[in-house]
Amino acid sequence: MTTKTDSINAPGLGGEVDILEEQLLPPVNEFRRFVKVFFRRKIVLIGFIIVVLIVAMAIFADVIAPFGPYEQDLHNVLAAPDSTHLLGTDSLGRDLLSRIIYGSRVALSVGVITVLLSAAVGTLIGLVAGYAEGALQSVIMRLTDAMMAIPSLILSLIVASILNRGVLGVVIAVAITLFPGYIRLINGQVLSVKQNDYVMAGRSMGSHKARIMFRHILPNCLSPLIVQMTMMMGVAILSEASLSFLGLGILPPTAAWGGMCYDGYKYLMMRPLLSIAPGLAIMVLVFSFNMVGDGLRDALDPKLRGTSSN
Amino acid sequence: MLTYIVRRLIHAFVVIVIVSIAVFILIRLLPGDPIEMLISQTQLTETTPEMIEALRHDKGLDRPLPVQYADWFVQMIRGDFGTSIMRNFDIGKEIGNRVTVTLMIGLSAFVIGLVLGPILGIVSAVRRGKFVDNLVTVIANIGITAPAFWVGILLIFFFGVRLKLLPIYGYTLPWDDFWMSFKQSLMPIFVTALGPIATTARQTRSSVLEVMSEDYIRTAWAKGLNERKVILRHIIKNSLLPVVTLQGTMLRMVVGGSVVVETVFVIPGMGKMMVDAMLSHDYPVVQAVTVIMTLVVVLSSLIVDLLYGWLDPRIQYD
Amino acid sequence: MERLLTVSGLTTEFRTERGTVKAVNDVSYHVDEGEIIGLVGESGCGKSVSQLSVMQLIPNPPGKIVAGSVEFEGQDLLRYGRESREMCAIRGGRISMVFQEPMTSLNPAMTICRQMGEVLTEHLGIDKAEARERSVDMLSQVGIPDPGKRADDYPHQLSGGMRQRVMVGMSMLCNPKMIIADEATTALDATIQAQLLELMYEMVNKYHTALVMVTHNLGIVARYVHRVNVMYAGRIIESGTVRELWANPMHPYTEGLLKCVPKLGERLVPIKGMPPSLINRPPTCPFLPRCRLRQKSCFEEPVPELTHVEGDHYTTCRVRLEGLTDD
């Protein structure tokens, strides 16, 4: 490692002023630095707290929700909000608040599983492509280009309609639009990391290819990978919501926010909350994940710091 | 330059072929036999196995898959997209009608995003930390995180249901009734443009901030240029480079978004056609629409690449 | 010789995550017309920041000039706003700057000719055709072969050395009174470095332009400059003519620096230790932790002002000034 420099980068009267880090700064605990940078922006902290709260809400839905998600009260259909049904009831007399609380389970589980699945598949293919070089790499990258050329919503619509409706079908339908992104990311990372001296050194000492890949290259891809995964949480949740809204995702009666929006849309004139409230829930969750992703990017990947949007 | 364009065209063609094969295979995996669905839909009461076979033969579904694919692809290049299994309309013609509607909304939204996104991003970056910047950041965050259908529903609720200012669904072509068309287009265009505006503004903002800290911007200041000249001559062009590459993705976003927007606003465009065809397992329609949409996306990203090369002198065409 | 620039008490701070950094701390020096002076010190000692402060090119935030005055041709530049018309007229017109990074200091999306011409149209108000003519002429003066053709090239088509020649040419275009060369040759190969130094030397002599050479290479200084300011941890700790400093370095840091210049038949002696943190510096001598002459009183007394020794020679070493040691 050469001398670390801490660049003071600022817009305005351009320019970058290099000041040697050793000379300015006492050594800092890496974890404390991470936490400090991560929570430096208030909005990231808020996002983080909301994510934690929604995760807790999903886990303890049975305890928190005043009613069950399928509990119908046919005498009380499309009720206005009151003290029993804080957000009112839907066309089957189900408590909207409870269904929103249960809906977080679908959103989070689809989000998490999709992201893990697509990241695992994409990373593996990306590593292979990046390391293979030559024909195999260009074939993989061409196929990736082709996949990314299809509008993602269209692709997941097609896949979702092939598979059975349900969490797994939706997960695969969404994951298939996300994993090419990881292939590109990892392939790019591998190409740049491969130029590094320590990888060259490992090679010249006759280390096995697979060993180099997993011992040296993969750990170096971790930071951008984690950032990408957090960012993709929001995308995955939005895709699931769109599929469910179009009737090709999670099917009723399961409480999924997108589907609830669609059902409620029919009663927009009378009970606007039925479609607006679940949509708001989607937005809040996606927003929070994006903020956490921003914070992680600032804290984990100094190279990307300049590209942070806030 | 010419060889580059030719190479890119070949590349685009390969992508289209790969996508069409993939879609073709995927569609064959769809559950539900279209012939049976057709029969149950048209409520033919007495069907014999012979009749089913005849119908299958008639629709060309009894031939081997590669033959079906080759036939379909060649026909498509000739401009013949086949007929709908369900409703017997000429797909090419139907797409022709509907593509205008989708393009009217999609292109308007794309152009608005292309103009408004960079402007908001630049203003936001230049006035970093000020009120405008915070406002743009909030709008951008909403545009990225709010589901399009939800924004559509909100707009319909306020402007249609409550204020009764705008029609809540449907679409009229501008040459049929301009005023009606304008009123009907406002909300769908806004919803479609929101994502591209937000994404482009964000990207532009961070790109401008990055360029602002480049050495050559310091050089520009050191030359004695004032802020306006530094921004106009040195910052904008350089910071728009990554924004241009993003526009391919934006087009994909607009095209994909048409599915949702046309469903929410009940607009007879390609997106609605796609969803309807999908829900009724109308293979040929789904295939054709997907390929057309991909074609739009691939060609536009080709244009974007060429534009990028024109903007950035460092790109060499070899 | 006429006094051109007087900097006094210049102090520039940066706000960082871990506190305020005094990158330039109470710096005073002057430049006469047509004079070549050197500003020497290790990386991060504040020499670049001091020069950017004179030009008001410090990115703000996080940087800020908090004290001092910069008097140039009788005007106090710090009274003018950073983006004021007066300051813009001085930057590039009266004072120009050549930066360290030839690879990144030119706009990649603009031809050489347009980038150079811009300075002329800005300050002299001439039209584009004439600006082009003069730029091409300048390119040939700085030794660019086939300047008429090169003028339409983009920076990436030129080598690092060529680009730095362009930068030097660009800085001379409006015939400024002073050029600041901020490590202008550091990033280049040794032979190209020598050529460029020779070129700059010729150009400033030809047009009687003052030159401030910011460098960490004392070899450069010895050859070209009249007077040297040695900076350490944001302060000028010693200054004098080349002859005075070489013959009789007063500050142990200057001594150390001189021992780091390779000479035939002598061993290089590195200065032990690292430069100190610039956050919350005590008012004592910044070199104290590494000093081999330090006395007990050095830990108690604040560092003295630059104090006159003889001729043009000034120093801040109280041990030497007060004769506390016979070393």
Automatic annotation (TrEMBL), chain A:
- One GO cellular component, as annotated: plasma membrane
Q: Which UniProt keywords apply?
A: Cell membrane, Membrane, Transmembrane, Transmembrane helix, Transport
Predominant location of this chain? membrane
> What are the BP-aspect GO terms?
transmembrane transport
- Which InterPro entries does the protein's record reference? BP-dependent_transpt_permease, MetI-like, MetI-like_sf, OppC_N
Topological category with respect to the lipid bilayer: Multi-pass membrane protein
The subcellular localization recorded is:
Cell membrane
Q: Where is the ABC transmembrane type-1 domain?
A: 104-293
* TM stretches of this protein: 43-65, 106-131, 143-162, 168-186, 243-261, 273-292
Q: Which family does it belong to?
A: Belongs to the binding-protein-dependent transport system permease family.
| Protein name as annotated | Peptide/nickel transport system permease protein
Organism, scientific name: Sporobacter termitidis DSM 10068
Automatic annotation (TrEMBL), chain B:
Q: Which keywords are on file for this protein?
A: Cell membrane, Membrane, Transmembrane, Transmembrane helix, Transport
GO biological process annotation, one example: transmembrane transport
Family according to the record: Belongs to the binding-protein-dependent transport system permease family.
Gene3D superfamilies, A to Z: MetI-like
Q: Tell me where the transmembrane regions lie.
A: 12-30, 103-123, 135-158, 178-198, 250-268, 288-311
Work out whether the entry's keyword set contains Lyase. no
Q: Which residues form a coiled coil?
A: none
> What name goes with this protein?
Peptide/nickel transport system permease protein
Cellular component per GO? plasma membrane
What organism does the record attribute this protein to? Sporobacter termitidis DSM 10068
Q: Does the keyword Nucleotide-binding apply?
A: no
Q: Which InterPro entries match?
A: BPD_transp_1_N, MetI-like, MetI-like_sf
Database matches in CDD domains = TM_PBP2 (cd06261)
From TrEMBL, chain C:
> Lineage of the native species?
Bacteria, Bacillati, Bacillota, Clostridia, Eubacteriales
Species this protein is from: Sporobacter termitidis DSM 10068
Please state what the protein is called.
Oligopeptide transport system ATP-binding protein
A Gene Ontology molecular function term for this protein is: ATP binding
- Superkingdom assignment: Bacteria
* Residue ranges of domain ABC transporter in the record: 5-258
Q: Which GO terms describe its cellular component?
A: plasma membrane
According to Swiss-Prot or TrEMBL, what is its membrane topology? Peripheral membrane protein
Chief subcellular location: membrane
**Where is this protein found?**
Cell membrane
Q: Which family does it belong to?
A: Belongs to the ABC transporter superfamily.
Q: Which GO terms describe its biological process?
A: peptide transport
Keyword entries, A-Z: ATP-binding, Cell membrane, Membrane, Nucleotide-binding, Transport
Check the record and name the InterPro entries matching this protein: AAA+_ATPase, ABC_Ni/Peptide_Import, ABC_transporter-like_ATP-bd, ABC_transporter-like_CS, Oligopep_ABC_C, P-loop_NTPase
